[in-house]
Write a structure and sequence with these properties.
alpha+beta; five-stranded mixed β-sheet; 11 strands; about 40% helix; elongated
Length: about 425
């Protein structure tokens, strides 16, 4: 035996003790095989090794050798560098996918986790203990319930303006049905989101949202309701988004807490990890570039995370042919027809153009004013559409009248003259 020191495992030490007893004749080879859990033939083989070569012969033959499937040191260094620079903020699973897709480094999530943990880099995702609460079962069909919401996050990481991600996801499958980046949670952003949802998939049965004032008016008094809303049995005034949903026949359900809409909140959590990196890799710095990346990302997200519905038949309804979507997805208000066949809107005066074949609107009639997405203005009355033309001259006349209205009269001028007070050094 050489003076080299050999470290044996606990199992190997146990084998040596039992085999030495068998060599000394204290126990039989069959009993030694039973104690070690080995076959009798293999026990004879180990006895011969121990007798001829000593205890070091029972050590594993690959001990001290580098495994053939070991990850090269250069690959480990490359993974560590990418995890802290190009793919910073990614969890182990997502980093494994990105390395395989963009760098050609095929490693399992567990291998990536071992490399990063050895360097003291932990996953950024916080794994909190599960809370005990009753889960709401998913809807059975696509289109039975659609969640809509917005997420304010540093999506562009300072490369561009602050944007909000607006999403519509299906409750039954969890797939993203529509999405876009917009400047804020406002009417125009949600109008575009709902228009994309309806034109792409159809009209859903119900929409689930929070209690933002874009969806529900803060006025609860019935005095604020219009005549049409009262006839429809509406309990509170409709917002512009609420009106769009009502005209499409979509039931609007309000969530009372963020926990109630956990499905879309969890989706935002996943996108804040994955989509941010996709935008970074694409170098997106404008809202247009971010939306292009989002359109390419959504199909890949749905393929990976969406679940099949319990019932294959979809609950989305096709858009009826008689509906003019441009007159539904618009801003609507009510105005009165003034003398001169004009209406006022946003500080300007517009003349109503009577199209051929349409009846004349009586003066003082309240009409519905539509501001279409392209900025085109028109009024609707008894199923007819009347275009509007801006009146520049009348606007100047009205401005002059307003100035004359606030100008001082002759009596006021005399009163101001008599109210003059001379200075203290005046000779009078």
């Amino acid at each position: 035996m050489s003076g080299e020191r050999i470290t044996l495992s606990r199992v190997e030490l146990t084998r040596i003790q039992v085999l030495e007893q068998a060599l000394e004749g204290l126990i039989t080879t069959r009993y030694a095989a039973l104690v070690l859990g080995l076959s009798e033939r293999h026990t004879y083989r180990l006895k011969a090794k121990l007798r001829n070569q000593g205890p070091e012969a029972l050590a594993h033959g690959n001990r001290g050798r580098k495994p053939a499937h070991a990850i090269p040191e250069e690959t480990r260094k490359q993974v560590l560098e990418l995890a802290q620079t190009k793919y910073r903020g990614c969890n182990y699973t997502f980093l494994s996918e990105l390395l395989s897709e963009y760098e050609g480094i095929v490693l399992s999530p567990s291998s990536v986790a071992r490399i990063l943990k050895a360097a003291g880099i932990l996953s950024p995702k916080k794994h909190r203990p599960p809370k005990l609460h009753r889960l709401r079962p998913r809807k059975l069909q696509r289109g039975m319930l659609v969640h809509i919401d917005g997420s304010q996050h540093d999506w562009l990481e300072g490369r561009g303006p602050k944007v909000v991600l607006l999403l519509a996801i299906d409750d039954a499958t969890g797939e993203i049905l529509a999405g876009l980046f917009w400047y804020s949670e406002d009417f125009e952003g949600y109008r575009r989101l709902l228009y994309e949802l309806v034109t792409t998939h159809g009209i859903p049965v119900a929409v689930y949202s929070d209690r933002h004032t874009l969806f529900f008016s803060p006025k609860d008094k019935e005095e604020a309701l219009g005549l049409e809303e009262e006839l429809l049995g509406i309990k509170r005034p409709l917002t512009q988004i609420g009106r769009i949903l009502s005209e499409l026949g979509i039931q609007h359900i309000a969530a009372h807490s963020p926990q109630a809409k956990g499905r879309i909140e969890r989706t935002f959590g996943t996108l804040q990890e994955r989509l941010v990196v996709e935008l970074r890799l694409a170098g997106a710095s404008t809202i247009e570039e971010a939306n292009r990346v989002l359109k390419e990302f959504i199909p890949r997200y749905n393929e990976k995370f969406a679940k099949p519905p319990a019932v294959a038949q979809s609950a989305f309804r096709p858009v009826p042919s008689h509906l003019r979507l441009e007159h539904i997805f618009c801003w609507k208000d009510h105005r009165r027809i003034n003398p001169g066949y004009t209406v006022h809107f946003e500080g300007k005066v517009y003349r109503v153009v009577n199209p051929k074949g349409a009846p004349f609107i009586p003066l003082r009639t309240v009409v519905e004013l539509h501001k279409l997405p392209g900025g085109f203005l028109c009024v609707a009355w008894k199923g007819y559409i009347y275009p509007l033309e801006e009146q520049k001259e009348e606007k100047r006349v009205f401005k002059a009248l307003e100035q004359a209205k606030h100008a001082p009269s002759a009596k006021e001028g005399v009163a101001r003259a008599h109210s003059y007070k001379p200075p203290a050094d005046h000779p009078w």
